[in-house]
Write a structure and sequence with these properties.
The chain folds into two domains: 176 residues, Rossmann fold; 126 residues, N-(1-d-carboxylethyl)-l-norvaline Dehydrogenase, domain 2. It is 44% helix and 20% strand. The protein has twelve helices and ten strands. A five-stranded parallel β-sheet has the order 5-2-1-6-7. Strands 3, 4, 8, 9 and 10 form a five-stranded mixed β-sheet that branches. The longest helix is centred in the middle third of the chain and has 22 residues. It is globular, with a radius of gyration of 19 Å.
Length: 307
């Protein structure tokens, strides 16, 4: 399968490397020091699952070189997404399927500013991985999973084949029948985890064992479910119960990536998480006072140390 990976950070670097190692034609769109290191020394994956080096990854800094890809995985940051869409749009062929893996539920609309909607599918990524140093991706733990779903009938065949390729490449990959529910399930859970660990500057272990913090966690989550229902995407009846199980199973020291970004003075994805909940809730007429409080408290830090 011919695959383009737009961005080679934790998500794109890890999954793209595994697909390339399995023999697929993978090309990375990557620039800067990370891209230079990949060109000079290869792409190194450090993981409890399997550590290896992709000796000669196919890399390019020119979006037009991606033309002909069957599946295009978009893994750049949300704040770069509309610019990325403009740059890669000429390379999106009539049979290509473009799959964004950003957090939140705004990525599809952002890509659609430059790319035809019938070419854009739905995707979610579950992994703890970061660029440890230029050319090196560090994967924490053993969990790594991609889920994809068709938003247009023409996408189905390519996405089913992609999910099968992922399984053979050694990571969990799934084609789902309800892509909107898939997107909202991750959005609700991640918004809760990121908002609470960033707001409190605490680990999930502290949050789940303090009864008051756990109550706030549940309130953030419940408001997300109410917004999903008002948006025409009701969650499964057992979703809240499953969320409690997820909360109790997470490593005690876990913080969401947004909390790490906050502590490091980096830019935050809050406008597309708690900020998006508040924005969408206002449009839908749904009260979300707890999320509004989280968003108000994080807004001064959205631009990181530069802000």
């Amino acid at each position: 399968m011919k695959i383009a990976v737009i961005g080679a950070g934790g998500v794109g670097g890890y999954f793209g490397a595994r697909l390339a190692k399995a023999g697929h034609d993978v090309q990375f769109l990557v620039r800067g020091a990370h891209g230079q290191a990949m060109g000079e020394r290869g792409l190194r994956i450090q993981s409890e699952v399997e550590s290896f080096t992709l000796e000669r990854p196919r890399i390019t800094g020119t979006p037009g070189d991606l033309a002909g890809a069957e599946v295009m995985l978009v893994t750049t940051k949300l704040w770069d997404l509309e610019a990325t869409a403009r740059q890669v749009a000429p390379a999106v062929g009539p049979q290509a399927v473009v799959v964004p893996f950003q957090n939140g539920v705004d990525a599809i609309d952002m890509l659609a500013t430059s790319i035809p909607r019938e070419r854009i599918a739905a995707g979610t990524a579950y992994i703890s991985a970061v660029i440890d140093s230029p050319g090196v991706i560090a994967h924490t733990g053993t969990f790594a999973r991609l889920r994809v779903g068709a938003l247009h009938p023409s996408q189905r065949e390519s996405l089913v084949a992609f999910a099968a390729a992922g399984e053979k490449a050694g990571f969990a990959a799934e084609f789902v029948q309800e892509p909107q529910r898939m997107l909202w399930e991750k959005f609700i859970l991640l918004n809760t985890l990121s908002g609470m660990t960033a707001l409190t500057r605490q680990t999930i272990g502290v949050i789940r064992t303090d009864p008051h913090l756990r109550d706030v966690f549940r309130a953030v989550f419940r408001e997300g479910m109410e917004l999903a229902a008002a948006s025409g995407v009701p969650m499964a009846p057992d979703f809240a119960e499953r969320n409690e199980a997820v909360l109790d199973a997470l490593p005690e020291s876990m913080r969401a990536s947004m909390a790490h970004d906050l502590l490091a003075g980096r830019r935050l994805e809050a406008p597309w998480l708690c900020g998006a909940v508040v924005r969408r809730a206002a449009a839908a007429g749904v009260p979300v006072p707890v999320n509004a409080t989280v968003w108000a408290a994080l807004k001064p830090f959205v631009d990181g140390a530069a802000g």
